[in-house]
Amino acid sequence: MIRIVKGTDSEIHTFYELLRIYFPYYETSGELFLSIETIGDIKKAVLVIGEDRFEKDFNFKDEYEAKRAIASWIVRDIEHDSKEDCLWGTLTGTRPIKFLQKQRRLLGDEKTKAYLIDEYLLSPYMADLLMDIALLESEKTDGIKGKGYSLYIHIPFCATRCDYCSYPTIRSDNLDAVELYMDYLLKELDYVLGTIKEDPTTIYIGGGTPTSIPLPMLSKLLDRLTNLKPVEFTLEAGRPETIDENLLNMLKEYPVTRISINPQTMVDETLKRVKRPHKSEDIKRAYDMVRELTDFEINMDLILGLGDEGIPEVAHTFDEIIALNPENITIHVLSLKNGSKLFENEGVYTKNIRRMQNYSMKRMDEAGYHPYYLYRQKRIMGNGSNIGFSREGHDNLYNMIMMEEIHSVLGVGMSSTTKLVDKKGKTIRKFSNFRNMRDYTDRFGEIIGKKKRYLGDIL
Fold first, then answer.
1. Are the C-beta atoms of 156 and 195 separated by less than 8 Å?
2. Cβ 351 vs Cβ 329: under 8 Å
């Protein structure tokens, strides 16, 4: 158990996140304590890891300087068998590119890279990667910063629940629940589209597996969007067993431009182990059908760290996916979230995660894909990151907008989040819908009430 037994509120938050990255074992096991005591102009830091004790006094001029010095001490100077290596230095948070963009505006590109390495102790490799993505994102999004909005629509239904999933999903064979949910979803969508008259820049329908609901219900949703003219329109069709000719022929009638087909791995034994109800051949069948019947761009999600996979299994997956040649490949590192069966059962194989991520970067580069967006998650294995890769000219705009909060994203549906961004590109408000269906339907008036109060901030 990681405990900050003494310190300011800011110190407690900062150092809990840092210690969780470098000492992940102690988040659920053992005992790790950090105490930070202020005595005049000295901060006395004491770190206890099991039976080992480390302490140091820090002279400081301000609180920021003190936090930087203590963080550097933990990262650079503390040596312990349980300590994980990390390319991220002292940088925490889920949106490192957003942080980097702010520094670029203040310092310029050359000084920003040096700042990341010298002040935040990032590895030169990680600093280069972040700078490359930041420059690409600026090129793609500077023209829409603080302008317009994007629309996210959430459909929380899946045919089954995978062991690594922590999202609040509902079985799609519960047709009464699907019908009730879709009725309320359409009411919320109608309110948003009736309030904001301009077309969204991008639309993203996610889940869950949106294509797991009956086609007439999905069509009813898409009917609401058919006259909109977004730059791009993504629909998650993650499960290959939901993809058939009827679905694809229907989707062609709407302004959909991109779909996701998500194998996660192409190793059948792993798919079975994590209760993913398809085989690798089903992925190929669905992919070929999309290519034959549509001109949609295709994204494919992969997850590193499933089951006891190592480099041989990951290599097999990359061989198969690269041969298919999708426009986008998004590589996630398994994150052990509360609510997932893998987190509850623990014992997940983690030793080779860094090797797997290094291998994936190499394979993507060799195959002609470049990284275009990146984010981190809490409890991510091996201190990795989730990275989206793209063929030249096929970067997904919504992912960059959403991760870096470029402009407002309006969330519709259970557990969706709305982020309002002003004309200067500053996030001014963030609020989420209820995470379970009962509250979403029973307290629907509160959801519309929030949108009535706050959507005017961006109009």
1. no
2. no
pLDDT(348) > 70: no
Token pair recorded at residue 167: 């999202």
Chain length of the chain = 459
* Alpha helices, H only, 37-95: 63-72
Contact of 389 with 343, CB cutoff 8 Å: no
For 265-280, letters b (16+ CB in 10 Å) and e give: bbbeebbeebebebbb
Rounded Cα distance between 331 and 387, Å, is 5
117 and 170, same domain (yes or no): no
Containing structural domain, residue 174: 145-446
Assess whether 137 and 249 both reside in one domain.
Answer: no
Provide the pLDDT for residue 197: 87
pLDDT exceeds cutoff 80 at 343: no
Minimum mean pLDDT range among 221-225, 351-355, 369-373: 351-355
Q: Which pLDDT value is given to residue 287?
A: 98
CA atoms in the 13 A half-sphere facing the CB of 443? 14
Question: What would the pLDDT profile of 249-282 be if each residue is shown by its tens digit?
Answer: 999 999 999 999 999 999 999 999 988 889 999 9
Cis before 393? omega within 30: no
The tens digit of pLDDT for each residue in 321-341 reads: 999 999 999 999 987 654 444
What are the CA-CA distances from residue 66 to residues 6, 69, 452 (Å)?
15, 5, 43
Please tell me the distance from the alpha carbon of residue 150 to that of residue 259, in angstroms, as a whole number.
17
Distance CA 392, CA 50 (A): 50
In a domain, 30, yes or no: yes
Same domain? 319 vs 229: yes
Does 459 have pLDDT greater than 70? no
Q: Is 362 exposed, middle or buried (0-12, 13-18, 19+ CB in 10 A)?
A: exposed
**Contact between 55 and 47 (Cβ < 8 Å):** yes
Considering the domain architecture, whether residues 59 and 181 belong to the same structural domain is answered as no
Final residue of a structural domain among 77, 107, 126: 77
**CA torsion sign, 308 to 327 to 211 to 249?**
negative
15, 46: one domain: yes
- Distance CA(275)–CA(278), nearest Å, equals 9
Asked if residue 425 and residue 285 are part of one domain, the reply reads yes
- Looking at 47, 77, 107, which one is the last position of a domain? 77
